[in-house]
Design brief:
- The protein has about 325 residues and is α+β, with helices and mostly antiparallel strands.
- The protein has one domain.
- The strands form five sheets. Strands 3, 4, 5, 8 and 9 form a five-stranded antiparallel sheet that branches. A three-stranded antiparallel sheet has the order 10-11-14, covered by helices on one side.
């Protein structure tokens, strides 16, 4: 009697492998879609929170944050840096990195000289000295008449700087009372510069008291939204997804010095975008979405269509449409 082979044939094994592969692919796609939906939901929730804070700012001040432009608003320009100064040239076409940079000309981040207590941390963590630790920086900042951001990096007053108490963040009452450097606050020279004076009316004490009063009204709306800081005015505002331990953010400026910064990030861990033109009675707040690409809202698709130019064989208007189609946007008009 002939014994039957009870094992699988090669064809059967291949069919099983194919089926398992299809199931796994579907599972991975489902997991990926779930992850993207979570990031989108987180982004929408943060946009709403920031929008609530902006409503509070408007009610208090009669305008939305008057953020200045810190770089070129032209997406066809590329930046060059030499000895800390910026210059711009034709990029030779439309590229997403330049478009993103132009769209973020009104910064979201707040950059400032980090407190003296962070000097040692800066050197260890980055290999660069703190701005506070550099006599060269003090001399440059104190003696320079032209201290625009493009020429001298000290303070960058982005959107979040209007929604948090600046003086509290940099040293609190010690700073407000003129105790510089020695008590964990930035050096006093930085507060004599045009960059500080143009963006802060009054003495440090008056700015401190005004901010304490105003910001307390909307800081609770920013719970879980701010990246680079932990607690502000008793509220835990840290962005737990991007800074699980309330990490202090440091950035190297011009390859020489370190500044501290805080910012607002979307569900993908990228900075939001903000645009408001004088007299600051309306604004646009948005995320670049899953693809991480966007385009300046002040340049319309109709304008690009009339320009009738192409980059790498594709019409610029089509490139821009591709970049913005997944943007997540909030307006107030």
């Amino acid at each position: 009697m002939k014994k039957e082979n009870s094992g699988f044939t090669l064809v059967e094994i291949m069919v099983v492998v194919a089926v398992v592969g299809m199931l796994m692919a579907g599972l991975f796609k489902l997991i990926s879609a779930t992850g993207e939906n979570t990031k989108k939901a987180r982004t929408v929730a943060r946009l709403q929170r920031i929008q609530n804070a902006l409503a509070g700012f408007y009610a208090e001040n009669g305008t939305y944050p008057p953020v200045q432009q810190f770089c070129s608003t032209n997406p066809y320009k590329v930046e060059h840096r030499n000895d800390g100064k910026s210059s711009w040239s034709d990029a030779g076409g439309l590229h997403s990195d330049n478009a993103n940079r132009a769209a973020g000309a009104q910064s979201v981040a707040f950059l400032f000289p980090n407190v003296k207590g962070l000097n040692e941390m800066c050197v260890v963590a980055t290999g660069y000295p703190s701005v506070n630790a550099s006599p060269e920086a003090h001399k440059t900042y104190q003696n320079s008449e032209d201290v625009a951001w493009d020429n001298c990096r000290i303070f960058k007053f982005g959107l979040i700087s209007y929604l948090v108490p600046r003086v509290e963040l940099m040293g609190g009452e010690d700073l407000a009372d003129g105790s510089f450097g020695g008590n964990g606050t930035p050096e006093g020279n930085f507060f004599k510069t045009v960059q500080w004076g143009k963006n802060n009316v009054g003495t440090l004490r008056s700015v401190y008291e005004r901010e304490q009063h105003q910001c307390a009204r909307w800081i609770p709306h920013l719970e879980g939204c701010i990246s680079g800081v932990g607690t502000i005015l008793g509220e835990d505002v840290r962005d737990w997804e991007n800074d699980k331990h309330g990490t202090i953010h440091l950035t190297v400026i011009d390859g020489k010095y370190v500044l501290q910064y805080i910012t607002l990030k979307d569900g993908w861990g990228r900075e939001f975008y903000y645009y408001s033109a004088p007299p600051y009675q309306s604004y646009r707040l948005w995320s670049a979405g899953p693809n991480g690409k966007t385009f300046p809202p002040w340049i319309t698709m109709e304008t690009l269509k009339k320009k009738d130019s192409s980059t790498n064989g594709k019409k610029d208007v089509d490139l821009a449409r591709d970049w913005v189609e997944d943007d997540i946007v909030r307006f107030d008009r």
